[in-house]
Specification:
- The structure is a homotetramer of 132-residue chains.
- With 132 residues, chain A is mainly alpha-helical.
- Chain A contains 4 helices and no strands.
- Chain A is elongated, with a radius of gyration of 16 Å.
- The two termini of chain A are 18 Å apart.
- Chains in contact: A-B, A-C, A-D, B-C, B-D, C-D.
- At the B-D interface, helix 1 and helix 2 of B face helix 1 and helix 2 of D.
């Protein structure tokens, strides 16, 4: 099958979500608060914490082997991309940008692969998918 | 404007997300575990906890006034509907079914209204929306 | 028994924890970030988010009817008191101060009442308690 | 100083908390639910999820460099020990037992070292410590 997914791919995505959560939370609540200025600009700072939270939730859905993790991964991918763009605009946040982009890519892959699989074989009680 | 949203509508959705989180978490970890049988069936039980978590995350995005709460609300709406369907199938879970459905409706509304608004006036650094 | 606790007392503590979580998270990520200055001072701002998180965890332990909720409530009480003191020092944060203090008191009560009860009748597999 | 703590010790504790969170959440919501029987016994199953949650919160407090992480680590240590004891009693859960014990030890160390340091030099606005 073209869209067979390996267990290790999901574990890879979990690892990236956890890494992205950690760096966003830690950077925001230590470096950004200490430096101040544009680093505590409202939209940017909030986005870093939102990104940390959705990454945590996506990781938890995958850890629990949720049949709906693809939905959370799709959302996580978009929030991570927005956070990467915001960090890029602020500048001097290369590590955050890179980690957010990697996480976004991996989450997008998880979202699409599972949506494709589920559109062929949809379990009962599960609603239509966003990306199908 | 047709899609003007009131502050109180968001607060209403926050309240429903918190109510849905509470009832799913509490019911799963007290009643379902005590009764056992089909109430701890793998897919069903996991879905109740997944539902509690995404409701918590959606509420937190809205509390923080996140510009991307619509994405989390869209996902939350689908998870709540799946949870309601699963609870309905198990039977004798009328309160959960009702609360999940109300939360799903409110979240879907939040997702759509904000997607419409943002597709007209999209802030910089924010990616294309799922529902546009 | 002197230290009989009513179900409604726990529900009252859950409600206060949720209220404290909401006001700390919302105030920090909207008002404090918008106003800036001393409101985004490192220790203070971080404490508000730490307070929101421990309140959420304490509420979740109580919702799940955890036998160890008294430990989390004890910690939550101390974090809430620290947050109240910090908000008082910043000034113009009367609602936060008041809500944190109420939550701290309720959590402290939950911690002590349950520790007393459990020191008389300790379930197997549960370690010695902090407050006994 | 005798109780100087290295940055890497905190990172080590964060890593153990995350590992403990992951294994407890994953084992409960996949293996335990699939196997059933005593693995979904009320007190035991709930404790595994409580353990996952407090580990997540402890990790988040440390990632944010919270001055009060020692309080959460103290509580986390007790919950992890209770979870290890419960898993030991259930049997065939060696990995969970081992990871919970390691996390409990590391958290206890973090709790004590920081309490000692803070009892000498207590920051303003921070309440008396549990372990002092």
């Amino acid at each position: 099958m073209a869209y067979q997914i390996q267990k290790s791919e999901m574990q890879h995505c979990i690892d990236l979500c956890k890494q992205c959560h950690d760096i966003c939370l830690k950077t925001a609540l230590t470096d950004c608060l200490r430096v101040g200025g544009k680093h505590v600009e409202e939209e940017h700072f909030r986005l870093m914490l939102n990104c940390a939270e959705i990454c945590q939730t996506a990781a938890n859905f995958m850890l629990s082997n949720s049949a709906l993790h693809n939905l959370v991964c799709a959302t996580c991918s978009e929030v991570c991309n927005a956070c990467a763009a915001s960090c890029e605009q602020i500048g001097h946040m290369d590590e955050c940008v890179q980690v957010c982009r990697h996480c976004a890519e991996s989450c997008e892959e998880m979202a699409h692969v599972y949506s494709l699989r589920q559109s062929n074989k949809r379990p009962s009680g599960v609603p239509p998918l966003m990306h199908s």
